[in-house]
Amino acid sequence: MNATKFIWPVVLVLAGLWVIFGSNRGGALVGDRVNSLVVFFGRDVVSNSQQLSGGPILTAFGGTEVDLRSARPVDGGAAVDVVCAFGGVGFLVPEGWRAEFTGLPMFGRWSDKTRREPLGVDAPVLSIEDLVAFGGLEVKHGKN
C-alpha cells in the first residue's frame, strides 16, 4: 500500500479545519469563563476574574497557556474541560491552589508541577476533565 495516496486527503482536511476555525480566533474571556479554541497556532489567555467558574479549552496542533495567577475560583472551585490533540495546554495558578485531574491521556500525559505543601479543605481547586492525545497538559505556579 502506498502511503502517498493519503497525503493529499489529509492535507485537504487539515486545510479545511484551518479555514473553518481560522488562525486568528481562539481565546476569549466570556464573563467569568475561559473559552479557548486553538487550531494550528498558539494562544495565551489571561483571566483576572474573581469568580472564575471554568470553561472549555480545545487545542489541536498548537499550544494554549492559561494564566490564572490573578484569578479566584467560585466556591467549590473552577472546572475546565480540556481536549488537547497533537499540542500542549499549560495552566499557571497561584500558590495554594490544588489541581485535580480526571480524564484520559492517550499517548500523551498530564503533570501537576505545583508545590506539594499541605492545603486546607478550603483551598481553591482547579478541576480539569481532560482528553490528551499525542500531547501534554501541565499545571504549575510560575513561568519557570
Describe this structure as you would to a colleague.
This protein has 144 residues and is mostly beta strands. The protein has one domain (23-140). It has one helix spanning 7-21; strands at residues 27-30, 33-39, 42-46, 54-60, 63-67, 78-85, 88-92, 98-106, 109-112, 125-133, 136-140. The strands form 2 sheets. Strands 1-2-4-6-10-8 form a 6-stranded mixed beta sheet, with helices on one face. The protein has a 5-stranded parallel beta sheet with strand order 3-5-7-11-9, with no helix packed on it. A hairpin with a 2-residue loop joins strand 1 and strand 2 (33-39). It starts with 6 loop residues before the first helix and ends with a strand.
Give the fraction of residues assigned to helices: 10-25%
Distance from first to last alpha carbon: 46 Å
Per DSSP, the total helix count is 1
Outline the low-pLDDT stretches: none
User: What is the beta-strand fraction?
Assistant: over 45%
Placed side by side, the strands forming the largest sheet appear as: 1-2-4-6-10-8
Number of strands: 11
Structural class: mainly beta
